[in-house]
Every structure is written in structure tokens, then in C-alpha cells.
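Exercise: predict the fold of this chain.
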Amino acid sequence: MGFRKPRSDSKLENLPEEQHDQLVSWLMGGLSYKKALLLLEKAPFYIETSDRALSEFYDKYCSQALLERRQRAARLAMGVRKEMEARPADFDAATIELLSRWAFEMASANTLDPKSVKSIMTLLLKRRDQDAKAKTLEFEKEKFRASLMSKIETAMEALFAEIKDNAKALEAFNAMKAALAK
């Protein structure tokens, strides 16, 4: 399909570049056709046009730009995902917070790309799972340490009860106790 030259009487097609870009920005930013029509009637545009003309303008210029934006976001999200999967420990809490905000902004903006949001949310959930596993591991290590210390203390008390009357053994016991305290 070839490029068609805009009609010479098409007001929106013949806008100066700056005004064209402004209109694209408004429409891609979610401005309603009704509000866009009102803004077009004011300076610096001074244009009266119709919903249909705006719709055709949107289809021609904004739809493609939105598609390209979503594709860029998807590529970026996939790149971040691959990087995080390759090196999950390298991503700190600030990075995860940034991704969380980004996912929220994408989900609440009109530029929503479900695949990108899904990728980001998958990364965030994996990170949360990693954090939970790390906390569980730390808890298990502390539990093991406490159990070990309890057994050591019980053994030390039993040993002390046996050697409390032997001066040499008591001296060695106190030296060992001092070494363990370090």
C-alpha cells in the first residue's frame, strides 16, 4: 500500500510540523476528541474540524506511533527480564521499586502493553519469591545456630559438673570456654 498525498483542503493533514506534533501528543496522551476539537479552535490553530477528521488523523498518525511505543516497551521489558534472570542477585531493592512503579504506570496509562506488564510483574514476583526464600534460609540458619548453642551449653554444663573438682581440667575447661566466647 503506497503513501497517499494528503488532500490540499485537509486542515489536519496540512498542519505545520509543530502543530501536527502537538495534536499527536494530545491524542496519544489520552485527550478526548471533544477536548481536542475545542483546543483546535483556539490559538495557534484556529481550525474547525470534525470528529471524523480527528479519527482519521488518529488512525493515520497515532495508531502507528502507539504500536511502535508498545513494541519498544516490550523489547525493553524483555531485555530487563533477561538481565534479571541472568543475574537476579545484582538487582537491589531500588531497582525492584523502580520496576514496580514502571509496571504501575504502564498498567494505568493508555499505553498499556499487556505483555510488557506481564513480564515486569513476573520479574517482581520472582524477586519476591527470592526474598522469601532468602528470609526462610536466614531463619533456618538462626534456628540451627540456636539449637547448636543450646546443645553446646547443655554439654558444657554436664562437662563442668564432671570436672569441677579437678583443677587442671577446670583450667582447660575455662580456656576452652574463653575461646568459644570469641
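Check your answer against the key: Residues 97 and 112 are 19 Å apart (CA to CA).
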